[in-house]
Amino acid sequence: MVKMWEEILEQPEVLKKTVTTNMAVIDELIADLKSREISTVIIAARGTSDHAAVYAKYAIETLIGIPVSLAAPSVFTMYNKKLNMKNCFVIGISQSGKAADAIEVVKAAKEQGAITMSVTNFVDSPLAQTSKYHLFCDTSVEQSVAATKTFTSTVFLLINFIAKWAQNDELLNELKNVPDIMSNIFDKADTIKEIVQKYRFMKECFVLARGINYSIALEAALKIQETTYVRAKAFATSDFHHGPFAMVERDMPVIVYAPEGPSCKDVLEMINKLKNSDADILIISNNQELLKLGNSSIEIPKGCSDYVSPLFNVVVAQMFACNLSLLKGLNPDSPRGLNKITITR
Organism's domain of life (predicted)? Predict the structure, then answer.
């Protein structure tokens, strides 16, 4: 069994312990945040971690009501400029904790007296040491190049922290059940493997979602890119209506994340538009009517909020990419030209 698949299967157990590991520091951080007048949140990240940042942006803005900016680290590292971050809450996300550009953003913020937090999988990493507060993914070492359990633990940590910051007990209670419900998705492994067969010769595809699940469309496209070498491109359905839709042609593979919730109406409109263009549509949803509209479909657990469906959708994305990589005769653990740790500045 390849390491990527093993690490996908580890995720429910990882999620069960990661919040417990960080409960004390989360409480301390929230107390600090509530003692200050925070006007803006800034998040610095790259790659997979940046997709977790997109998720956090939606969650903070909808649950806390504070605007979130995704940092442009080049402002600090390439242009050598300083930003006024004194009244900001600045977050750096990096699984390895070695992202040099994210470190520079957090370092500059800390020097100005901003509250700083990092999320990494190594307590002794440079980013963890730079920030005032550190959330530890606690996944054990991830060996496959493709991030799976580190991404999911990052997102799970972030939403638990944000829900507690927002004092949203309903969401906190829902999150407690996520690891056990996630385990049920693995019962669909054979179904996903069978669906992947039809995409064996796929060279390009689009991945679409709306709202907070846009972060998962981005992550799903990246997983497909790095493990299968397919030219996958993610879009928010709202953006795809514009210029990008002109690229859709007959039998073009389009993966659509369509969970029940606020995005349902807009995603349904896009699905119907894609059907009229004879695209090959794979729908991931927990809405029975939407599932019926796809050429293929994968069902995720019912009754979950918009903050939780991304955690289930990303597991489906990981399983899809891993199976497709193996079907193409590739090694998802060691993609060509890639290393586990990528350091940009």
Answer: Bacteria
